[in-house]
Amino acid sequence: MTDTQAPAHATGPTSPSASTPVSPSATVFGPGPANPVAPAPAGARTAADVVTPEVVARLVRGVVGSGRTANRAPFTGERLAELPESAPEDVAEAFARARAAQTAWAAVPVRRRAAVLLRFHDLLLERQAEVLDLVQLETGKARLHAHEEVQAVAIAARHYGVRAAPYLNPRRRGGAVPLLTKVTELRQPRGVVGHIAPWNYPLELSVGDALPAFAAGNAVVMKPDTQTALTALWARELLVEAGLPAGVFQVVLGDGPVVGPEVVRHADYVSFTGSTRTGREVARGAAARLVGVSLELGGKNPMLVLRDADVEKAAAGAVRACFSSAGQLCISVERLYLHESVADAFLERFVARTRAVRLGAFLAYGADMGSLVGVRQLEAVTRHVEEAVAKGARLLAGGVPRPDVGPLFHEPTVLEGVDASMAVCTEETFGPVVSVYRFTDEDEVIERANDTAYGLNASVWTRDGRRGLAVAARLRAGTVNVNEGYGAAYGSVQAPMGGMKDSGLGRRHGSEGILKYTEAQTVARQRVMPLAPSFGMDDEKYAAFMSRSLRLMKALRLR
């Protein structure tokens, strides 16, 4: 993701949803009509209904901070909540509190720790309306896209609630000498994890990543982005209600360049999601202290539509892949590669669907896309689009901000004729913008898809499952989805998820997603005879005996 506010929403005529099939015959390439605005349902809640002084006062009790800061609602640009701000000494205090609580938490049997995650799972689904409101208010995203976060966190909570014990239980390993050397692999918690979370997916990328750390017996000091702090604090409150000791989960807030390095300076392990540039700084800070780190960073994710793809399904999938959360998703698609034989048919459908995307700024279902989160994001999107058009790229859809809907809205945008001289070609936009490229040769398009510093996610569309798998295996991306944009791989939490190349280090999900929060400890017990000359053997006889034993173990295929 990249580094890093509105009059009340307007309403307009009802239009087909982006998920509704749209007749391609109605599509004419070139700038088209403005995206429609979804009408707000009667009785929809407002920020004043949700973020009351009582709610804010209750949630911010979880912050260690003596200063003051605030966040704003992207839908309106108005101040949302006044929040505590943490100074370096507050970060040190948060880590001291976490360390004091972690020892007792680590002594709790793993199945009891995991049971907290399962109770949290149930509470999250029961009370999801509360956090959906907060996610929308703090990010500006459409409610359906906010619900993606609820789904992702619930899936992770269930997975680690069920699988934490099998992942963490002691394991017997083969010893140096069969029968005589008994070996057990133990998993010890790292201690206090420093977790730096971004603003774009404030539920999933805050508490979702912390759940396996808690299950492994760690405490966590989290620095969520101030813009989306209420969502993270709500999740903390729910975890405490589910049985997590409050001291085990500390929260600090403040500017990244001030608070972030302090988190890295005190942590026993660092988990970070954000830009590649900042990720390098985090990695350097962790390396200086010889502590581990996991990083999920930027992406310039490609989608390949092969000659045998179902273009109707591919076009619908591309709308989801490119414009979910207004493109502010590390694994969203920003490059579309279309086989020449299906490119026109695909674009007719995709452009029509893109122009039908309904914008909305209300706390309810019904809008297809929401707002960007901040002024810097809107400026970056506008800059990329305007520069590309000035250099000769063609607008097939969108291309303009929509201040009539809200101060940070921008239409979903499709560009063709993009070349390497344009920033949108190689830089991560992190907004609702996708560029289109045509190809004729499969080997060539794989090379073009891989021709980037990033390697986070990719998508392949084909009717041939074997072909899809073969192409996927040649793409240098941590996850590849066949006939889906990003959700199939990300939602499959038994499998690891993360980036190659400049897109990161380490993985979330699966065994890797929890074992990274532990230190492996090997305990070996030797019986009967030592691994040294004994029973009257001299050194030469011992060496000969061991040589014969090693040959025998190979012959018996002992591991």
TrEMBL record:
<dbReference type="InterPro" id="IPR016161">
    <property type="entry name" value="Ald_DH/histidinol_DH"/>
</dbReference>
<dbReference type="Pfam" id="PF00171">
    <property type="entry name" value="Aldedh"/>
</dbReference>
<feature type="compositionally biased region" description="Low complexity">
    <location>
        <begin position="1"/>
        <end position="32"/>
    </location>
</feature>
<keyword id="KW-0560">Oxidoreductase</keyword>
<feature type="active site">
    <location>
        <position position="296"/>
    </location>
</feature>
<keyword id="KW-0521">NADP</keyword>
<protein>
    <recommendedName>
        <fullName>succinate-semialdehyde dehydrogenase (NADP(+))</fullName>
        <ecNumber>1.2.1.79</ecNumber>
    </recommendedName>
</protein>
<dbReference type="InterPro" id="IPR016162">
    <property type="entry name" value="Ald_DH_N"/>
</dbReference>
<feature type="region of interest" description="Disordered">
    <location>
        <begin position="1"/>
        <end position="41"/>
    </location>
</feature>
<dbReference type="InterPro" id="IPR029510">
    <property type="entry name" value="Ald_DH_CS_GLU"/>
</dbReference>
<feature type="domain" description="Aldehyde dehydrogenase">
    <location>
        <begin position="69"/>
        <end position="523"/>
    </location>
</feature>
<dbReference type="GO" id="GO:0036243">
    <property type="term" value="F:succinate-semialdehyde dehydrogenase (NADP+) activity"/>
</dbReference>
<dbReference type="InterPro" id="IPR016163">
    <property type="entry name" value="Ald_DH_C"/>
</dbReference>
<comment type="similarity">
    <text>Belongs to the aldehyde dehydrogenase family.</text>
</comment>
<dbReference type="InterPro" id="IPR015590">
    <property type="entry name" value="Aldehyde_DH_dom"/>
</dbReference>
